[in-house]
Amino acid sequence: MNAGTIQNKGLEIALNHRNTVGEVYYNVGVNLSTIKNKVKEVTVGNVQEFGGYNPQGEGTVTWAKVGDPIGAFYVIKTNGLFQSKEEVDAYTKDGEKIQPKAEPGDVRFVDFNGDGKITDDDRQYAGSPFPDFTFSVNGNITWKNFDASVTLQGVVGNKIYNATRQTLEDVTKGTNFLASTLDYWTPENLNAAHPRLTWDDPNRNTRAESDRYLENGSYLRLRNLQLGYTFPQQWFRGYIEKVRVYANAENLFTITGYSGYTPDVNADNARYRGFDNFIYPTNRVFMLGLNVTF
Q1: What is the mean pLDDT of the chain?
Q2: In this structure, are residues 209 and 76 in contact, taking their beta carbons and an 8 Å threshold?
Q3: How would DSSP label each residue in 27-68?
């Protein structure tokens, strides 16, 4: 259905430089684009918002709300782990504990609306699946019979919800877990990355609608690297016009702080755009080739 109005505003810049220095020819191109996505209106129903991804039937994590980008993340923010019983008892509102079922080692959730309890109403805007910038750098160089080309590509400023982590770090399930759960809180491991291990999870440390699983999606990837050599034409006495051999590598490396298999996440559904729900990693490909022109 035509359920709303979406506005996209952006800018794209492309720069290219070519030059020859002696026997060396080179070309460098840079492309930079930015886009601001905004939901202008919802044209069905009486509420100016659409819910999106809802992991495990819990709180909805992504929304299409008027004024926000489509698929914006709304989660309950966290503020570290409780390190002692005293910290749990001190986290109060009007004398009542905000997290009465918490124990040392549990996650401290932010009471955003100030009502003295942690509910779905404490979700707040936490980022966009759209990057601030998308960029690529392309270059090639030729010297005598040798040539090389390279393509770098990346994005900056987007968020990814790591639903793979949310599933495989949930220690309340009788399944295999990610190795990251080995760094769990104990009185001897106060700086742990993971809360205490508990089978029943009364504090809901693993609730899907928290920012524990929301990560920075920025990355820089070496998308393509190719080295080639063209044999001298006189070797073939005019029977063959050109013979070139080359080695090519794709997705050779990715620099990113994202903990999943790949930060290159883009779901088919616009409201799930920034979700990594067991997305298969990008293949690294190596090739040897031969070009023959008659």
Answers
A1: 93
A2: yes
A3: EEEEEEEEEEEEEEEE-SSSSSEEE---GGGSS--EEEEBTS
Rounded Cα gap, residues 146 and 125, in angstroms: 52
Strands (E), the chain: 4-21, 24-42, 49-51, 62-65, 72-75, 78-81, 92-93, 96-97, 107-109, 124-127, 133-143, 146-156, 159-162, 214-216, 219-230, 242-250, 254-256, 275-276, 285-293
Nearest Cα neighbor of 152 from 134, 128, 136 is 136
Residue 235 DSSP SS3: helix
Among 240, 100, 245, 75, residue whose Cα is nearest residue 166: 75
Instruction: Decide if 148 contacts 141 (C-beta within 8 A).
Output: yes
* Global pTM value: 0.90
pLDDT band for position 46 (cuts 50, 70, 90): confident
Give the bridge partners for 6, in sequence order: 39
Helix (H, G, I), strand (E, B) or coil at 113: coil
Question: What letter represents residue 217's amino acid?
Answer: G
Please give the DSSP secondary-structure letter assigned to residue 200: S
d(CA 28, CA 156): 21
Kindly list the distances between the CA atom of residue 91 and the CA atoms of 15, 82, 223, in Å, as whole numbers in the listed order: 54, 10, 48
What does the pLDDT look like over 145-167, one tens digit per residue? 999 999 999 999 999 999 999 99
